[in-house]
Design a protein that fits this description.
The protein is of the alpha/beta class. Strand 4, helix 4 and strand 5 form a beta-alpha-beta unit. Helix content is 39%, strand content 23%. This is tRNA (Adenine(22)-N(1))-methyltransferase TrmK.
Length: 223
């Protein structure tokens, strides 16, 4: 199992010290395997709704990680019984569209409120919809950054469920536009150009008003 740049960065941002980490939409187990290598949690949960994929993954994990504490769950991420587990938990949802991620967040919201739970998210599109939903549901921002892989930009967003004393995620991001790491200024400029063009096309179509997002992007001063 050799994860790519995006999955490796998600594993880094996940950190360690959790009782349970849930790898939702597990991408053939590559991210979860990286987390097992890092000893990121007492128990690593692999989640997907495809039975054949989970059966195959369980066989591979039994071979490669026979001593590790992991479980495979054939479930919809939105139906995870997170409230039945105690301790500090992390749910990772990556590699799915923003519309599906919004559905998952809305379905999970009532069950996870008040848990010692963080979410690490990486939607493949419609990031503004995801951010709007996070704000509406009261999630607090822990970290955000941009990552470019195979000429495509991704937003990586880590949040905490309410209650908390953190700021809400902004409509279009804040700190991620001012990342001081080498090469990130160029990534931000490319992502800004693509995001503005996408929103302008939506606005021109007249079916959806995206002017709040466009205005927020225009207010950002890139380095």
């Amino acid at each position: 199992m050799t994860p790519g740049k995006r999955l490796l960065r998600l594993a880094e941002l996940a950190g360690t010290g959790y009782q349970h980490i849930w790898d939702g939409c597990c991408d053939h187990g590559q991210l979860g395997a990286a987390l097992l290598d890092r000893h990121a949690a007492n128990t690593l949960h692999f989640v997907d709704i495809v039975p054949a994929l989970m059966n195959e993954l369980a066989q591979r994990l039994s071979q490669w990680y026979p001593q590790a504490n992991w479980q495979c769950h054939c479930l919809d991420v939105a139906q995870l019984p997170l409230q039945h587990y105690s301790g500090h938990q992390l749910l990772i949802i990556a590699g799915v569209g923003g519309d599906l991620m919004v559905r998952m967040l809305n379905q999970l919201a009532s069950a996870i409120s008040g848990l010692n739970l963080e979410l690490l998210l990486c939607p493949v599109n419609h990031c503004q919809d995801v951010r709007t939903t996070l704000r509406e549901l009261g999630f607090g921002l822990l970290h955000e950054e941009l990552l470019e892989e195979n000429r495509r930009c991704y937003e990586l967003i880590k949040v905490r469920v309410p209650p908390h004393s953190l700021a809400l995620p902004s409509l279009v991001g804040d700190a991620m536009w001012h990342d001081q790491r080498a090469g990130q200024a160029e990534v931000a400029r490319r992502y800004m150009t693509r995001t503005q063009a996408h929103l302008q096309r939506i606005q021109a179509g007249g079916k959806e008003d995206v002017s709040p997002w466009l205005d927020a992007l225009q207010a950002i001063q890139l380095p």
